[in-house]
Amino acid sequence: MKNILILMLLLIAMPGQSDIISRNLVGTGADILLTKNYQEDTGMGEIEVQLCSSCTNYKLTIDSQTKALRRDEAITLIQLKMYLNANRKAPMRVQFNKHTKQVFYISLQPKNKE
């Protein structure tokens, strides 16, 4: 019985030891800036994301593992620039690793109709 109690206490303590490694940024397509290190032929390289003029400027990296979505359908990284330019006011979400700054995915949604 004593061993079960110790085991239960250990299991309860474990979730508190985990670390959240990803971060989400939610804004519009205009908040994403493709830097001079962005390679148009591959769709990979560095981007900057700044949600407002006084907000933190995040320097992030798009690589071959990054997933790009438009209307919840996969697009190529090469298509990403075209969609960003065509839909500057459309909602977007960027998820990235807080430590490595690698972008996991960029999701572009249709422009809100108001």
Could you describe the 3D structure shown?
By secondary structure, this protein is an alpha+beta fold. It has helices at 2-13, 77-86; strands spanning 22-28, 32-34, 45-49, 58-62, 67-70, 73-75, 91-97, 103-108. It has a single domain (21-108), classed as OB fold (Dihydrolipoamide Acetyltransferase, E2P) (Beta Barrel). It has 2 helices and 8 strands; from the N terminus they run H-E-E-E-E-E-E-H-E-E.
* CATH architectural arrangement: Beta Barrel
**What distance lies between the first and last C-alpha atoms, to the nearest angstrom?**
62 Å
Query: How would a textbook summarize the main sheet?
Result: 5 strands, mixed
Radius of gyration: 19 Å
CATH structural fold name: OB fold (Dihydrolipoamide Acetyltransferase, E2P)
Count of discrete alpha- or pi-helical segments spanning 4 or more residues: 2
Low-confidence stretches: none
Query: What pattern of helices and strands is seen along the backbone?
Result: HEEEEEEHEE
Mean pLDDT: 85
Overall structural class, as computed from helix and strand content, comes to alpha+beta
The oligomerization state is single chain
What is the share of helical residues? 10-25%
User: What proportion strand?
Assistant: 35-45%
> Spatial order of the strands in the main sheet?
1-7-8-5-6
